[in-house]
Amino acid sequence: MFDRPGIGEQAILVHLDLNAESQREYITEFKELALSAGATVRDIITSHRKTPDAKYFIGKGKAEEIAHLVEAEEIELVLFNHALSPSQERNLEALFQCRVLDRTGLILDIFSQRARTFEGKLQVELAQLKHLSTRLIRGWTHLERQKGGIGLRGPGETQLETDRRLLGMRIKQIKKRLEKVRKQREQGRMARRKAEVPTVAFVGYTNAGKSTLFNALTNAEVYVQDQLFATLDPTLRRLKIDNSSEIILADTVGFIRHLPHDLVDSFRSTLQETEQAHLLFHIIDASDDMRLDNIHAVETVLQEIGAMKVPQIQIMNKIDRLEIEPRIDRDEQGKVKRIWVSAIENQGLDLIHQVLAEHFKQDLVKGSLCLSPADGRVRALLYGINAVDDEKVDEQGQFVLQINIPRRDLLQMASRESVPEHLLLPDDYVAPLEDVY
């Protein structure tokens, strides 16, 4: 077998058009991914098949054509715009005599370059190790299971088995460290909830302009670049929305079509900033022809991490490219659906402040809440955010809590914890019961 180079620079991109819509990828986005990883794209090979080839994915004839091109052009890396099985990757590397990387491996490589914080580096390493664990091959001959002679007996396992064991140990170590980081993040979120500081998380497709808008609103200095996955580590900043109210803005990692599951699992603690936010700003590149597909890709990931229940407002960014004036779109009930802005030109930022002030105005709900002993989690959550003024136990042994809570927190908790309507006693409520639920 060949020696793997440290970094492949001269690259060929391979794109296969498949009939199945669920497997369809876009070649322009793939090229941007390759450039973001630092590759120099020498050529793009495209082909069409109904189904992938079991051995080479692209078929034997096309694979041999690429092998001749690799040898003639002295190519160091071949990138596939699809997920390859471990056996397909090994077969292609043996044929091309150079490094082969699929879409998942390419995204993991970009993430490893962008990670800056300790947590981010751990999360990327965990995802890489999970991906690598399915691609370990061969054992060294000098470490064979059985070998005779004094001084020639190996440790009783092949190098492949040793690699797997060490890999498993490292994955356990990283998971333990990430669990500690997750608990620290949860403490921070609890402190913000007790201080009644709401959080707005920025989500959106990669390179939609999340960090540019974040910097424009908060005067932060988050790294901004016109490339995919420029932001990896989450950043939190306070923003004053009126004379008396503050919120926390959270800039998060961008999403992409067919985001590798290992990445979603590894970044679970970071993505909790999205899941537990009071409001999501879904940043959309309004000038992108593929924006509807991008919206669907983002919502798929939000569904996967359990964040679709969080209230969401779309921010249509980059309107300077479309020559559109900033505006607010509302639905039939008057609720804000989307805001049209240009972060790079500072257009429409005042509208965002206006919507935030409107959404987070102190609309308090006061009254009684009747909970059974089985509803202990809801009771603990109410105490955790200092929403309980008084508590009594009635004749049936149920807890009757006098609560004083912002409407947004009550709605969010009711949605997540599935609080039954009959538990609410509408005696003192500022708003009628049907307005609350």
Regions with little confidence, pLDDT below 50 for 5+ residues: 1-8, 139-149, 421-437
Largest sheet: 7 strands, mixed
What portion of residues is helical? 25-40%
Distance separating the two termini: 65 Å
CATH class call of the largest domain: Alpha Beta
The SSE string, one letter per element, is: EHEHEHEHHHEHEEHHEHEEEHEHEEHEH
What is the architecture of the largest domain at the second tier of CATH?
3-Layer(aba) Sandwich
Q: Which secondary-structure class do the elements indicate?
A: alpha/beta
The radius of gyration over CA amounts to: 26 Å
Q: State the strand order across the main sheet.
A: 6-7-5-8-9-11-10
Organism: endosymbiont of Galathealinum brachiosum
Function: GTPase that associates with the 50S ribosomal subunit and may have a role during protein synthesis or ribosome biogenesis.
InterPro entries: G_HFLX_dom, GTP-bd, GTP-bd_M, GTPase_HflX, GTPase_HflX_N, GTPase_HflX_N_sf, P-loop_NTPase
GO molecular function: GTP binding; GTPase activity; metal ion binding; ribosome binding
Structure commentary:
With 437 residues, this protein is an alpha/beta fold. It folds into 3 domains: 10-101, GTPase HflX, N-terminal domain (Rossmann fold, 3-Layer(aba) Sandwich), CATH 3.40.50.11060; 189-360, P-loop containing nucleotide triphosphate hydrolases (Rossmann fold); 364-423, Alpha-Beta Plaits (2-Layer Sandwich), CATH 3.30.70. The chain has helices at residues 27-36, 60-73, 86-96, 103-114, 118-132, 159-194, 210-218, 261-266, 268-275, 291-304, 349-359, 376-384, 407-417, 433-436; strands spanning 10-18, 40-49, 77-80, 99-101, 199-204, 235-240, 246-251, 279-285, 312-317, 327-330, 336-340, 364-371, 388-393, 399-406, 424-425. Strand 8 (279-285), helix 10 (291-304) and strand 9 form a beta-alpha-beta unit. Helix 1 (27-36) packs parallel to helix 4 and helix 4 (103-114) runs antiparallel to helix 5. It is globular, with a radius of gyration of 26 Å. GTP binds at residues 204-211, 229-233, 251-254, 317-320. Belongs to the TRAFAC class OBG-HflX-like GTPase superfamily. HflX GTPase family. Its cofactor is Mg(2+). One of its GO terms (cellular component) is cytoplasm.
